[in-house]
Amino acid sequence: MTDGRLPGRVALITGAASGMGATHARAFLAEGACVLLGDIDDDKGSKLAEELGDNAAYVHLDVTASADWTAAVQAAVDRFGKLNVLVNNAGILDGGPLGTYTEQQWRRILDINLTGAFLGLSAARDALVAARPSSVINVSSAAGIQGVAGMHGYTASKFGLRGLTKSAALELAEHGVRVNSVHPGGVMTPMIAGMAAEHGVAEIDRAQNTLTRLAHPEEITSLMVYLASEESSFCTGAEFVADGGLTAGSIHA
Ligand code: NAD
Predict the structure, then answer these.
(1) What is the C-alpha separation between 215 and 193, in angstroms, rounded?
(2) With b meaning 16 or more CB within 10 Å and e meaning fewer, what string describes 99-137?
(3) Which residue ranges have their beta carbon within 6 Å of ligand 1?
(4) Which of 4, 90, 134, 200 has its CA 20 to 30 A from that of 165?
(5) What family does the Swiss-Prot or TrEMBL record give for this protein (predicted)?
């Protein structure tokens, strides 16, 4: 009988009702953590938490709302006694050429993908420090390492998340909180499913990366477990790329 790789860890995962967030939640629980799932999809989120058992709970958490963040951090402490892992995973994807992509789209995606993580770090700071050693994982993207044509808001938000990771890591290191960013390439989740339906999975797979396929969510989750645990105790302010070679360079001479 083992305690798993995350004994004594209490994690708050945003955007946990579906896609990668849900996969991370399952794996964290299997490794011995307690998990508070946050999302705006209350139906899906609460059903999932119920299915996952006593060490899981759901809270309505719109990452753009400071009051939701305050309540979510308090809920983690009330239910599980502390908070020592924060996964800023919630995000949206959109795009469109300059001149067509609207100011409203720009502001919305920056608000959810970037400001949401800032609000989370701000709200959770004291709880994370109190429960040290703690770990924050900001889910950026390969689009936070290199640009993507026509995806201005998404690319800017994911580059911004990479910068926020470093400023927070530098500030929080002395308080026992590590902060890292994760940069997945294409992963088969509901976020990508729409694109796949439009263009065909084979085409997307070929276009994605050197491994010529999309990742399974579990291939990102294994990295998340490592970062959430003290196995990664010497890692902070760092970028963890899992993109099938997408940002390694071109295979063409
Ligand atoms: P997904 O669309 O499957 O899930 C996203 C979840 O976030 C949903 O449950 C949604 O309800 C929730 N959400 C949306 N707005 C929210 C808000 N304001 N507050 C709280 N929750 C909100 O997406 P996914 O593919 O699992 O992506 C998860 C993260 O990984 C995102 O940050 C995404 O940008 C990033 N990412 C995804 C891919 C990919 O190929 N799927 C690649 C790189 C990075």
Answers:
(1) 13
(2) eebeeebbeebbbbbbbbbbbbbebbbebbeebeebbbb
(3) 14-15, 17-21, 39-41, 61-64, 89-93, 112, 139, 141, 184, 186-187, 189-192
(4) 4
(5) Belongs to the short-chain dehydrogenases/reductases (SDR) family.
- How far apart are alpha carbons 74 and 205 in whole angstroms? 42
* pLDDT tens per residue, range 196-253: 777 676 666 666 678 888 899 999 999 999 999 999 999 999 999 999 999 998 777 6
Distance (angstroms) between ligand 1 centre and the Cα of 135 equals: 20
Q: List pLDDT tens digits, range 29-79.
A: 999 999 999 999 999 999 999 999 999 999 999 999 999 999 999 999 999
As for the ipTM of the complex, it is: 0.99
Give yes or no for a contact between 217 and 188, defined as CB atoms under 8 angstroms apart.
Answer: yes
Polymer length of the chain? 253
**Residue 53: alpha-carbon gap to chain centroid:** 22
Q: Distance between CA 191 and CA 22 in Å, rounded?
A: 13
